[in-house]
Amino acid sequence: MRALIVGGGIGGLAAAIALHRYGWRVQVLERAAEFTEVGAGLSIQPNALRALDALGLGDEVRERAVTDAPVGTRRADGTWLIRNDVDRLTRRYGFWATLHRADLLDLLHRALPPQTLRPGVRVREVRPDGTVVHSGGTGTADVVVGADGLHSATRRSLWPDAPAPRYAGYTTFRMIAAARPVEGAVESWGRGDRFGYAPLADGRVYCYAMVTGPPDGTGGLTDLRRRFAGWHNPVPALLETVEPGAVLRHDTYELPDLDTYATGRVALLGDAAHAMTPNLGQGAGQALEDAVVLARTLEAARTGDTTVVEALRAYDRIRRPRTQMIARRSRQLGAMADPTRLPPAARDAALRMAPASVFVRSMDPVLSWTG
């Protein structure tokens, strides 16, 4: 059986690998001229590592990554708000893995036969019967997977009445700082702004900042250095080592809940289905989970035990409640950092008073996924 994957990011490549492992003939249509990645770092949490294990890539990811659990959350002045028991988190959930996004994309690319990858193809329309109209002509498949991101052409074709993505109220900046020792993965909260950092295997440090403000604004490294100049060490020092022009800036959008992730022979996956805020760090992880579950449900169609349409309905029944729950939790966590919704002093007091066990248990619904 044949599958067309629209989009060659993490979710699309993972879906292609999962289906290829089950014997599907797969083709990935990517609008960019090359399958490259210009991103910064990426934290793969335990649930996502289990999805990568299912794809046969978990061990290679661990070899390239720093596998420590996050250390905790500080205030802008360095006071701890949440101090994690790293060993306890690892025993309960498994390993985290922090690596450069390009390293993960490289592993995903190499897990597929080169002929399955078609860069430079812009999809114009997707039809429920499995037809895809694109810049290179028209293709048909037994199943089409829309893994084409927040502004998905697949979703636009078949979910024309779906609500548009909505701005979350802040812009996210990502960057890589020069090598220096840091205590581990830490996020710090100020009055509406947040800054996080985590070590990479080569000694460099992945950094990100979330800055409250209107969309389509300006801002770059100079603005970040000024905004975070009074924060605790090593935040200002990390920003001083970032190369000018190497900061990725994205206004943060999320997708309102869809009624279904599947119609006819077409399914949505990853951000195309459930783009979420980065507060839980689960965007890539949920796309990886989607890929594993999609391939497993479609296996029944490949073997003749059910139809593709029914298999995709099963995928929707499994994935939509979980991903929408996680998107909701991520949105709620982001609201805690918004000073217009919760005064920072009240927020900080509540976080410092909460037992560490409460935080650990609160992560169960997200991190305990096993497939």
Model description:
The structure is a single chain. By secondary structure, this protein is an alpha/beta fold. The protein has one domain: FAD/NAD(P)-binding domain. The protein contains 14 helices and 18 strands. It has helices at about 10-20, 45-55, 60-65, 85-95, 100-110, 155-160, 220-225, 235-240, 270-275, 285-300, 310-335, 345-355, 355-360, 365; strands at about 1-5, 25-30, 40-45, 70-75, 80-85, 95-100, 115-120, 125, 130-135, 135-140, 145, 165-175, 185-190, 195-200, 205-210, 250-255, 260-265, 265-270. The strands form four sheets. Strands 5-4-13-14-15-12-16 form a seven-stranded mixed β-sheet. The protein has a six-stranded mixed β-sheet with strand order 7-2-1-11-18-17. The chain is globular and about 60 Å long.
Present the secondary structure layout.
Elements: E1 2-6, H1 10-21, E2 25-30, E3 41-44, H2 46-54, H3 58-64, E4 72-75, E5 80-83, H4 86-93, E6 97-100, H5 101-110, E7 117-119, E8 123-126, E9 131-134, E10 137-140, E11 143-146, H6 153-158, E12 166-177, E13 186-189, E14 194-199, E15 205-212, H7 221-227, H8 235-241, E16 248-254, E17 262-263, E18 266-268, H9 271-274, H10 283-302, H11 308-336, H12 344-353, H13 356-362, H14 364-367
Parallel strand pairs: 1-2, 1-11, 2-7, 4-13, 11-18
Antiparallel strand pairs: 3-6, 4-5, 8-9, 9-10, 12-15, 12-16, 13-14, 14-15, 17-18
